[in-house]
Design brief:
By secondary structure, the protein is mainly alpha-helical. The chain is about 80% helix and about 0% strand. The radius of gyration is 18 Å and the shape is elongated.
């Protein structure tokens, strides 16, 4: 069965958001193996930390960001399924997921820790916001059209 034409746009945006979420979730792991932005950011904010404590903080961030990413993947898959299945609750659920995801992304981007700096380096904070662009497109396409059922 093919998707009705009115569902193709939102679904395409949702699948793009899913891919961007996976990329944003893997970005801190790539950073850990290459540029060490997160470790350097923690070290700059807490210069008295020994290397073991910096490594522990990086690991904690990786766990937290992985859980957030997994929940994001689950949200994208659930809302895409709801749109595809023509569920009545698809638009409100997608809107709630967008608000939650954007709020979490903004928290990661803007929240300052006890050092006075943001908890995440700006590059990783902005990477966490990129999937929200696909979310706003999906929401606009969903609410700009008649109900998808």
């Amino acid at each position: 069965m093919t998707n009705p034409p009115r569902a193709r746009g939102p679904l395409a945006a949702m699948y793009a958001g899913l891919a961007l979420t996976v990329l944003a979730t893997t970005a801190p792991y790539v950073d850990r193996g290459t540029t060490h932005l997160l470790a350097d950011h923690i070290r700059a904010g807490y210069s008295s930390y020994p290397q073991a404590r910096v490594d522990s903080a990086v690991t904690t961030y990786l766990v937290v960001l992985s859980v957030i990413g997994a929940l994001g993947v689950l949200a994208w898959l659930t809302t895409a399924w709801a749109v595809h299945a023509g569920k009545r609750w698809a638009r409100p659920a997608a809107t709630v997921m967008f608000v939650l995801g954007t709020s979490i992304g903004l928290a990661g981007l803007l929240t300052k820790d006890t050092s006075g700096a943001t908890g995440l380096p700006p590059q990783l904070g902005w990477a966490g916001m990129i999937p929200c662009l696909a979310g706003v497109v999906a929401i606009a396409l969903m609410w700009g059209r008649p109900r998808l059922t």
